[in-house]
Amino acid sequence: MSRIQMTTPLVEMDGDEMTRVLWQWIKEELIEPYVDLKTVYFDLGLKHRNETDDAVTREAAQANRKYGVAVKCATITPNAARVKEYDLKEMWKSPNGTIRAILDGTVFRAPIIVSNILPNVRTWEKPITIARHAYGDVYKASEMIIPGPGKAELVFTDARGVEKRTLIHAFDGPGVVQGMHNLCGSIESFARSCFSYALSTGQDLWFSAKDTISKQYDHTFKDIFQEIFEKEYKDDFARAGITYFYTLIDDAVARVMKSKGGFIWACKNYDGDVMSDMISSAFGSLAMMTSVLVSPDGKYEYEAAHGTVQRHYYRYLEGEETSTNSVATIFAWTGALRKRGELDGLQELCAFADRLEKAALSTIEEGIMTKDLALITTTPDPQVKNSLDFIKAVRAHI
Ligand code: NAP
Ligand code: MG
């Protein structure tokens, strides 16, 4: 059988621990036998990040800018314990943070749905994708403990030294204050990423905030979305038969619970953080959640939403059997291959991505799965497979 040819390489970002092990198996068993895989390879494993003073992460992100589509394995974000474990020169920053800063993107997370794992919300039939703004607000805030009576104000000093101020509160006892910000440029990028992603996936887009209470801050988000939609996307949305609408976050939450799914829900940074955990656990499992970073100029980076599955890796190193779920990592590969196929007009490559996804889903739907899913499936007596045997079972379904 001749393998499917590619024209432009994918940017491949290898990673750490158990997911690095799965990465190799997925390539060997599920992709290379069918696709003449072309990639530009970057080793983002922590050892190599340390050896290159993290330059490899920046180079990988630049390559993502250049080629357009990347697939990334989960990576360790170092903490004090990792500095010791890997004898690191520095506590290197989160690779995802570095890549996000270079691509200026928005993260979209969507659950992978199978018929024998039921969502906790009965009406959900299709995935709900969360689009989380990844800059500012409470994640870049300044805070202060107020010890006792006094006046707290917001002060802005412009380039000429002219001050603008507004009272936060006249305290007559102890309390707390917080000052946070966002940038119109970042909100515009967020909006464009959401509109492009809605068009590229053919789904409606909802955006929610709290503009009735936050009449300047949240209202600015609402206005920027509306303006960009009217000017740049309205006609394309009409042609694609999809809609954009803004609603208050309370209303959005109520509607989501009664919806059938199948749309994108754009959220401000904090709302997206909280709501994506709610959506993923209500759909079943973090190991069945895909994640893609989309830049406003249409660059894509696909990955699994979970981490490196450290506990399983240590067992693997001890020679023990593991049953780690590779589905989200398989879908990172199929997402990237399909996007590459779309951009390069390679129908065979897109069709292969569809086939591999169907193979993974039908394997699970026939009752063959890893341990994490066996615990929550409606299939009686599922066949629990170890990490590699599950991948081989998927191959048998291709
Ligand atoms: P994690 O790797 O997502 O794993 C947490 C737990 O969730 C696992 O111990 C396992 O539970 C379960 N789990 C997650 N993915 C699974 C899968 N594919 N199959 C089966 N079970 C799965 O999170 P973590 O342990 O907090 O973080 C480990 C490392 O990953 C950290 O160094 C962190 O920095 C990094 N991380 C990276 C990314 C990324 O690159 N995008 C994201 C998050 C975390 P049981 O042990 O109970 O089976
Ligand atoms: Mg969170």
What is the structure about, briefly put?
It contains 14 helices and 16 strands. It has helices at about 15-30, 45-50, 55-65, 80-85, 95-105, 185-200, 215-240, 250-260, 270-285, 310-315, 325-345, 345-365, 370-375, 385-395, and strands at about 10-15, 40-45, 70, 105-110, 130, 140-145, 150-155, 165-170, 175-180, 205-210, 245-250, 265, 290-295, 300-305, 370, 385. A hairpin with a 5-residue loop joins β13 (about 290-295) and β14 (about 300-305).
Number of domains: 3
- Reported by name, the CATH topology of the largest domain is Isopropylmalate Dehydrogenase
CATH superfamily descriptor of the largest domain: Isopropylmalate Dehydrogenase
Instruction: Tell me how many strands there are.
Output: 16
For the largest beta-sheet, the strand count, sense and barrel status come to: 10 strands, mixed
Strand content: 15-25%
Bound molecules: NADP nicotinamide-adenine-dinucleotide phosphate, magnesium ion
Describe the structure.
- By secondary structure, the chain is α/β, with parallel strands linked by helices.
- The protein is 44% helix and 21% strand.
- It is built from 14 helices and 16 strands.
- Strands 2-1-3-14-13-4-5-12-10-11 form a 10-stranded mixed sheet, with helices on both faces. The protein has a two-stranded antiparallel ribbon with strand order 6-9. Strands 7-8 form a two-stranded antiparallel sheet.
- NADP nicotinamide-adenine-dinucleotide phosphate (NAP) binds at residues 74-77, 96, 286-287, 303, 306-311, 324-325, 372.
Entry keywords:
binds magnesium ion; Isopropylmalate Dehydrogenase; 3 domains; 16 strands; alpha/beta; binds NADP nicotinamide-adenine-dinucleotide phosphate; single chain; two-stranded antiparallel ribbon; 10-stranded mixed sheet; 398 residues
